[in-house]
Request: fold
Amino acid sequence: MSRPIVKQAFTVTAVTAMAFALASCTRAVDATSADGTASNTAASCVDTSGDSIKIGFINSLSGTMAISETTVNQSLHMAADEINAAGGVLGKQLEISEEDGASEPATFAERSQRLIQQECVAAVFGGWTSASRKAMLPVFEGNNSLLFYPVQYEGMESSPNIFYTGATTNQQIIPALDYLRENGLNRLFLVGSDYVFPRTANSIIKDYAEANGMEIVGEDYAPLGSTDFTTIANRMRDSNADAVFNTLNGDSNVAFFRQYNSLGFNADTLPVMSVSIAEEEVGGIGTANIEGQLVAWDYYQTIDTPENEAFVENFKDLYGQDKVTSDPMEAAYTSLYLWKEMVEKADSFDVAAIQAAADGTTFDAPEGTVVVDGDNHHISKTPRIGRIRPDGLIDTIWETDSPVDPDPYLSSYDWAKTTAATS
Reply:
């Protein structure tokens, strides 16, 4: 059941100061023992004595990111309902405590602290922007609790207290660049929201471009939630780019594509490759404004598998036949099932036991079978390039032959050594 948000025991200022003081430590921190599990001994208040177990959902249900995160929250609830209907986890029903991150990193830090220390949840599921994740990271490490983060991101991070079920860089951004290069689109204009994900992603893109004979002809950022893209669009127009690589997030994409279209551009004259626009965002942007454009994800509603057919049907039955499914919400849905599998493999809700059991945990997800890497807490995924259809759905036009193992630090790419060393 959902619980109302109550007055917080920690102030935003205090928690934010703690969060951002520690958030610069992006590799697995010192709270890791020789076997890779957390050695933090923070006391847990999780109650496993009854016939239910509490878990937490934290998503932006208000603010600029609500356009994206609301359906993530819905898919988490759907997964919890399915799991409860099938008997729960270790025979216990899931009881949901829920918080609104309100599109603010400070709020994510504060309310995740509340979920852990006051609601006593066994694990938390949610977050979207990398700023929200980095704000929460020290909270989860300091409390030795678990966060399941469902969104593609810039990589260069791993934590014993976070499981990353969205794509890391070698499962999204690099395949997108490979596709553009293979199709002769070598002059790129970079546009993104002004926070950690776009800036780190674009640093990686520039290193890739230099190593692969591509050229970056422009790079611009807008504040998260910005609606004025006049100057950026004019620079883009004057850059003589072959394509735009778009790392804008949230409802800024609505304003960007309207300005892009007002200059007479379309998917044929100046294609845009986006990495944060999925089926849900297409509706908000307006299909007419984005038809034919390219996206890079690991899941689309149109994937033809029995698991996805059931996933889409169940979601529409719950939330309406006009609703669409998308990569982040599928990754969130998958994350709850992966936690269930880890708990049952460990036969325990204990954090250290789950960490020890994580490696090799599998789930037949709507996107295909995924496998947890116990060393870096990411999962194998199949990169797919998609094209937006006139009806707003997305067709796969390119994909890898098999799932790609996660490489969050790009250690297998010689050209990325400088980026990895400075992150």
Q: What stands out?
A: Residues 170-298+383-422 form a domain with the Rossmann fold fold (CATH 3.40.50.2300). Confidence is low (pLDDT under 50) at residues 1-39.
